[in-house]
Amino acid sequence: MEINKHKIFVKITAEHDENGIVRPTILHWKDGRNFIIDKVYDVRRAAALKAGGTGWRYNCLISGKQVYLFDEDGRWFVEGK
Question: Which superkingdom does the taxonomy of this entry point to (predicted)?
Fold first, then answer.
């Protein structure tokens, strides 16, 4: 089984509260499409097993699909297929 090691960097619109909590709200794809992040289920420090690296992993619901969104030192990415 081949592991895809690509990080797809994306632009994120996020809310920041007074306690420093970051909640991503919109994922902006490079082709101009925008996706509302419907829900954030969980946030934790974790490795991107397919793409490599570590950071904050946001387990999100986007357009009815579970998506892992990563914040690695202020750069946001999803794992390529």
Answer: Bacteria
- Side chain identity at residue 51, one-letter code: A
Classify residue 1: in a domain, yes or no: no
Domain count, the chain: 1
Residue 38 CB contacts under 8 Å (≥ 6 apart), including other chains: 60, 61, 62, 63, 64
pTM assigned to the model: 0.86
Cβ count within 10 A of residue 74? 6
Compute and round to an integer the Cα radius of gyration of the chain.
Answer: 12
- How many whole angstroms separate alpha carbon 69 and alpha carbon 76? 7
Question: Tell me: the pLDDT tens digits for 9-32?
Answer: 999 999 999 999 999 999 999 999
Record the tokens describing residue 48, joined without a space.
């991107």
For the chain, which ranges sit under pLDDT 70? Answer: 1-5
